[in-house]
């Protein structure tokens, strides 16, 4: 425990009251059990009841989201092609590899098809296991093949039920984390209830099932729970080793299932770095966590056939830099306040410089450019110069990558979550500042202890980590809406822990000169119970209404398109079109694609930009030449993109292409002075006029209200 004074356990009432809540046998009514036997029995009973509640809530959450998914789509009643179309954009691409493994003649043949894939990107053979995080699909397909369940359960249900089952793991992990932090399972109950009632902002699993984050976040939550336990004081060596093993396994599974793992763990590493610099965490445990992050990522790198994007990650460079800098500056935590501040500034600068140098060196050696679009996006997003880069603007114009909308806070406030979170965050931030200042100044003198005896401020290592974790991920969520699910789930944990924490209420009451041990215990249990009652009465009717609302999947145009492709084109046909639609084409028809939504490859990004010239102002000859260079047999044009109205001017796909090509955008509004009118009309509009210059290259073979399919002529 980090504190501004050393506790004198067993001497006086103050020391006894200052013990952590989990070490005191207290009933919910505030009465302390007498005798060691009574205390042990109460602990066993409490853990048993708490465990049953955790598992029950996890299973209920799993059933809840599964029911919402069924009610929203009528999934059990729709056709197979409609089920597959419901896996939109990249979700369909990932699921297609599960389907491919299921349909393969053998497991070996299925794996060979993934390692030597020539249907995901035409005229190229790529290793899917290297490029994408699809080991979960491989594992699940093998499990489905070897288990005797084929007669009872369709492959798609085995897949979606696994994802919904992981939601149970997710909720249990959040519950346990909150319980560990506060010392009472009531806190876990409140965290789980908040997670469920704020479902719109805590998860999107029911409508984006195969998305990588839905696989990864449960393991991330397990890792945080294990770290929370690891940071407890007085762990036995066996407990510590087992906990480190749990952290490693959770870190490895999180890294294996999501391509953005390195960025999330970099934020986690920054939290550890900050707390270690402020002497708020044990250095030995922090070192172990750095090593676990590196080793977990390197193991994933090996499984992904030495994926260069992992080797060139900032996380590996940062963690190695921290370990090197710490070895150089051995006396970092000695000296007075000014001395230590000077050393810390030098340490931070050294780590930053080493990180950039190591990362630059690795990327130079590996010729790595896979993640450059992310840094271009970040540079443009935070105002370090405007950009005409097509890939960066594609992200900037998507709502998911914009700032967190303000109405998010009103929704979170309606469940009292945001109010509780703000209260706990303020108190613990003040406590953290005081403790950090005391640690840096080395003010542990007896005189100071005596002067501050009444207002002693403490912050346990696990609570300190939770605080910095939530602040850093909160900043990420505020800047990028898609990442809010990493923050809001932990917000439930953090707020519930604070409301059920002896330390938080003790600090509050001492500041108000109202502190007594009995009063703290009463508030610690009554406030969460009142909050739970409020949530139950306010949101239970809404949840019941939501579960009774029945809808049905309806997308006849896409269904008609997929059925036509399966019936009227050869199995070897190559299709070009938008990334999102082509993922569905691969899943529903098995045809070869020119491009797809998994964007973490420079060659694919350049290829996608070229394919998208079908929506730009280019000549029919240019477009035909581009498409044929990728082996295209058919091109699908979508009216929803060609005549897009979803985005404002400047963010429509056709506008991004015009700007990237140096052409003036359509419609009223300003254009940059160096943009010029195009010599050609927009291809997707002009091709529908059946002019000779177009019909010599393209023949329309399918049309409905949404899609137009053209077959490319094969000129000698």
Q: Could you characterize what this model shows?
A:
The protein is mainly α and 716 residues long. Among the domains are: 163-368 and 404-538, no CATH class; 556-712, Rossmann fold (3-Layer(aba) Sandwich), CATH 3.40.50. 64% of the residues lie in helices and 4% in strands. It has 34 helices and seven strands. Strands 4-3-5-7-6 form a five-stranded mixed beta sheet. It has a two-stranded antiparallel ribbon with strand order 1-2. Strand 3, helix 28 and strand 4 form a beta-alpha-beta unit. Belongs to the dpy-19 family. Keywords: Glycosyltransferase, Membrane, Transferase, Transmembrane, Transmembrane helix. Pfam families: Dpy19. The chain crosses the membrane at residues 41-66, 179-197, 217-235, 242-258, 264-281, 312-329, 341-362, 416-441, 525-543. Residues 1-30 are annotated as: Disordered.
Helix content: 55-70%
Helix/strand class: mainly alpha
Number of helices: 34
For the biggest sheet, the summary is:
5 strands, mixed
Strand content: under 5%
N-to-C CA distance: 77 Å
Please compute the radius of gyration using only Cα atoms: 29 Å
* Sheet with the most strands: spatial strand order: 4-3-5-7-6
| Strand runs, count | 7
Rough outline: globular
Mean pLDDT comes to 89
Could you name the ranges where pLDDT drops below 50 across 5 or more consecutive residues?
Answer: 1-34, 444-455
Protein name: D19L3 mannosyltransferase
Biased composition (Basic residues): 1-10
Membrane topology: Multi-pass membrane protein
Pfam family, one: Dpy19
What distinguishing features does this structure have?
7 strands, 34 helices, two-stranded antiparallel ribbon, disordered N terminus, Rossmann fold, 64% helix, 716 residues, mainly alpha
């Amino acid at each position: 425990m980090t504190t501004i004074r050393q506790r004198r356990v067993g001497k006086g009432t103050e020391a006894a009251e200052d013990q952590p809540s989990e070490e005191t046998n207290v009933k919910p009514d505030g009465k302390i059990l007498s005798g060691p036997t009574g205390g042990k029995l109460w602990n066993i009973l409490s853990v048993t009841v708490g465990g049953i509640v955790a598992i029950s809530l996890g299973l209920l959450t799993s059933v809840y989201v599964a029911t919402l998914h069924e009610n929203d789509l009528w999934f059990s009643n729709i056709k197979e092609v409609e089920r597959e179309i419901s896996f939109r954009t990249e979700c369909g691409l990932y699921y297609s590899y599960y389907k491919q493994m299921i349909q393969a003649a053998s497991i070996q043949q299925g794996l060979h098809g993934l390692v030597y894939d020539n249907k995901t990107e035409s005229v190229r053979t790529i290793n899917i296991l290297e490029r994408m995080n699809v080991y979960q699909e491989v594992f699940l397909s093998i499990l489905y093949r070897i288990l005797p369940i084929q007669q009872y359960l369709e492959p798609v249900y085995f897949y979606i039920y696994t994802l919904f089952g992981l939601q149970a793991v997710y909720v249990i992990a959040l519950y346990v984390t909150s319980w560990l932090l506060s010392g009472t399972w009531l806190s876990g109950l409140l965290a789980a209830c908040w997670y469920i009632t704020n479902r719109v902002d805590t998860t999107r699993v029911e409508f984006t099932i195969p998305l990588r984050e839905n696989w990864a976040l449960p393991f991330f939550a397990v890792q945080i729970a294990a770290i929370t336990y690891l940071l407890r004081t007085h762990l036995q060596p066996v407990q510590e080793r087992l906990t480190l093993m749990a952290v490693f396994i959770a870190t490895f599974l999180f890294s294996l299932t999501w391509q953005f793992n390195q960025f999330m763990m970099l934020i986690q590493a920054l939290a550890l770095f900050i707390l270690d610099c402020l002497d708020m965490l044990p250095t030995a445990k922090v070192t172990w966590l750095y090593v676990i992050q590196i080793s977990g990522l390197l193991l994933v790198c090996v499984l992904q056939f030495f994926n260069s994007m992992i080797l060139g990650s900032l996380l590996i460079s940062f963690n190695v830099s921290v370990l090197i800098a710490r070895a150089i500056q051995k006396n970092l935590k000695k000296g007075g306040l000014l001395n230590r501040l000077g050393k810390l500034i030098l340490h931070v600068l050294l780590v930053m410089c080493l990180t950039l140098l190591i990362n630059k060196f690795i990327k130079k050696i590996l010729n790595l450019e896979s993640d450059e679009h992310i840094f271009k996006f970040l540079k443009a997003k935070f105002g370090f110069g405007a950009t005409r880069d097509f890939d960066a603007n594609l992200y900037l114009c998507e709502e998911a990558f914009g700032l967190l909308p303000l109405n998010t806070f009103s929704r979170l406030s309606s469940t009292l979550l945001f109010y509780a979170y703000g209260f706990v965050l303020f108190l613990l931030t003040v406590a953290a500042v005081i403790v950090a200042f005391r640690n840096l100044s080395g003010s542990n003198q007896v005189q100071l202890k005596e002067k501050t005896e009444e207002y002693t401020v403490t912050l346990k290592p696990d609570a300190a980590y939770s605080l910095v974790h939530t602040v850093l991920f909160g900043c990420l969520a505020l800047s990028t809406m898609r990442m809010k699910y990493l923050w809001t789930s932990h917000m439930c944990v953090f707020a519930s822990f604070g409301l059920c924490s002896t330390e938080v209420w003790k600090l509050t009451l001492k500041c108000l000169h109202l502190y007594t041990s009995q009063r703290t215990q009463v508030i610690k249990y009554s406030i969460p119970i009142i909050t739970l009652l409020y949530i139950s009465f306010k949101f239970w009717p809404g949840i019941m209404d939501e579960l009774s609302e029945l809808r049905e999947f309806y997308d006849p145009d896409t269904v008609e398109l997929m059925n036509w492709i399966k019936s009227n084109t050869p199995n070897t046909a190559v299709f070009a079109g938008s990334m999102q639609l082509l993922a569905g084409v691969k899943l529903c028809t098995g045809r070869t694609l020119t491009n797809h939504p998994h964007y973490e490859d420079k060659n694919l990004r350049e290829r996608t930009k070229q394919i998208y010239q079908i929506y730009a102002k280019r000549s029919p000859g240019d477009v035909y030449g581009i498409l044929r260079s990728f082996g295209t047999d058919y091109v699908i044009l979508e009216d929803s993109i060609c005549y897009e109205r979803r985005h404002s001017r400047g963010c429509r796909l056709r506008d991004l292409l015009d700007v990237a090509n140096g052409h003036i955008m359509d419609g009223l509004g300003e254009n940059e002075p160096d943009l010029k009118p195009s010599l050609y009309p927009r291809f997707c509009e002009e091709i529908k006029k059946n002019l000779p210059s177009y019909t010599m290259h393209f023949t329309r073979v399918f049309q409905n209200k949404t899609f137009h399919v053209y077959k490319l002529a094969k000129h000698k």
